[in-house]
Amino acid sequence: MEKNYKAIIEAILFTMGDSVELSKIANAIDLSESKTKDIIEEMKKELDSQDRGITIVKLENSYQMCTKTQMYDYLIKIAKQPKRRVLSDILLETLSIIAYKQPVTRAEIEKIRGVSCEHAISKLIEYNLVSELGRLDAPGRPLLFGTTEEFLRVFGVKSLNELPILNQVQIEEFKQEAEKEMQIQLEV
């Protein structure tokens, strides 16, 4: 069975993303560098002659699969589209605490949630819903967190004053439920 060298080289260049040295490609497909180079050059000519969005470029003694420059305008339109982010219950809980108690430290958030929230805060910062506001003037100088303008945009409020007012009776009920859950966990 004859190997489809073009398909193998295409898979290598596509998967690697970065440039791949000719010697490594030749070694992977068990051909000489000269023969491998001929195949890659033929592939490049085929891609360039067809109405395709990709090409193969030579960078010193390496090759890389790239988008044709004529396609950049279309790529920019896609890259500028906002990514849909899903906020898990954990992220929403952490975000609510920050929104209502800001500026707030990670330790304060963890005290309220009862669990570590380092990952949740990192994700919220990555989503640009939360930012570091500075440091608390206390031992260890912990970071203070607060919401961003993006938070206001995403949740459709013009200011933090528009956030729903917390019902004190409901807060007490939540506290009692949490205490019951903690008691059950301690008994187990």
UniProtKB/TrEMBL annotation:
One of its GO terms (biological process) is DNA replication. Keywords: Cell cycle, Cell division, Chromosome partition, Cytoplasm. One of its GO terms (cellular component) is cytoplasm. Homodimer. Homodimerization may be required to stabilize the binding of ScpA to the Smc head domains. Component of a cohesin-like complex composed of ScpA, ScpB and the Smc homodimer, in which ScpA and ScpB bind to the head domain of Smc. The presence of the three proteins is required for the association of the complex with DNA. Participates in chromosomal partition during cell division. May act via the formation of a condensin-like complex containing Smc and ScpA that pull DNA away from mid-cell into both cell halves. PANTHER family: SEGREGATION AND CONDENSATION PROTEIN B. This is Segregation and condensation protein B. It comes from Lachnobacterium bovis.
